[in-house]
């Protein structure tokens, strides 16, 4: 009996060991309590995606542009540009410069400086013309914003002239796209007393008006001095015999007779002839 019991215990132990070494069941399901199951369902950590940086705004034309070549600069706010085989007068939008070419106006202060500044920016260069709302003004000039670019940055020429103080900000509705920018740079020009906002030069001192010289009229002597008859204190000419009508005609009567009365002018011998 004892031997039989030992054999039975050994058989039960062998069956338990075999069960412990057995793998997954035929259904392929791993018991959740096993280490393999816990490893299989562990979540994988996913790194949080960083948002893409917002690109910096680029200052440049907003609307469609036309590439043109500046043929000549008219003044501080007007150019002649060429594209498509034609030339066009172009008036800058949003600003105004002092007059230099208006036949009805004198050349205004800072006008030549505005023209020179405009020429320094665009003369002979390639520019880009941006339209706002209007096509042309009352003089049939194109109304445009005029842009320059070096390939990476843009310069609005209209705005730059206001920034330099050689032009005024001036709104021309309905073309008001950049009016706020014009106002801002004009305020800066005023703060720094640039150009138009600097000291106004004193007007030139007018030349003194010459005072006319009035020369009194002097009755000319009937005869040059030294050709007078010595017998009369008025300059009765010493020459051919004269009588009183002759003396009166010369405006010399009456005459004092102070010597021999050769002309017989003193008929009553009172010392006064042709009275």
Radius of gyration over C-alpha positions, nearest whole angstrom = 58 Å
- How do the strands of the widest beta sheet line up side by side? 1-2-3-6-5
| Class inferred from helices and paired strands | alpha+beta
- Note poorly predicted spans: 1-41
Instruction: Write the element-wise H/E pattern from the N-terminal end onward.
Output: HHEEEEHEEEHEHHEE
3D shape: rod-shaped
Task: Just name the CATH architecture of the domain at 65-197.
Answer: Beta Barrel
Mean pLDDT: 80
Task: State the total count of DSSP E strands.
Answer: 10
Report the span from N to C terminus. Answer: 210 Å
CATH-defined fold name of the domain at 65-197: OB fold (Dihydrolipoamide Acetyltransferase, E2P)
Largest sheet: 5 strands, mixed, barrel
**Number of helices in the DSSP assignment:** 6
Given this structure, which CATH class of the domain at 65-197 is correct? Answer: Mainly Beta
Strand portion, in percent? 15-25%
Summarize the amount of helix as a percent range: 10-25%
Description of the structure:
The chain has 275 residues and is α+β, with helices and mostly antiparallel strands. Among the domains are: 65-197, OB fold (Dihydrolipoamide Acetyltransferase, E2P) (Beta Barrel); 222-275, no CATH class. Helices cover 23% and strands 17% of the residues. It has 6 helices and 10 strands; from the N terminus they run ααββββαβββαβααββ. The protein has helices spanning 2-21, 35-40, 111-122, 157-163, 179-191, 244-249; strands spanning 65-73, 78-83, 86-92, 95-96, 126-130, 142-149, 154-156, 168-169, 255-256, 272-273. A 5-stranded mixed β-barrel has the order 1-2-3-6-5. Strand 2 (78-83) and strand 3 (86-92) form a beta hairpin. Helix 4 runs parallel beside helix 5 (179-191). The radius of gyration is 58 Å and the shape is rod-shaped. The termini are far apart. Mean pLDDT is 80; it is low at 1-41.
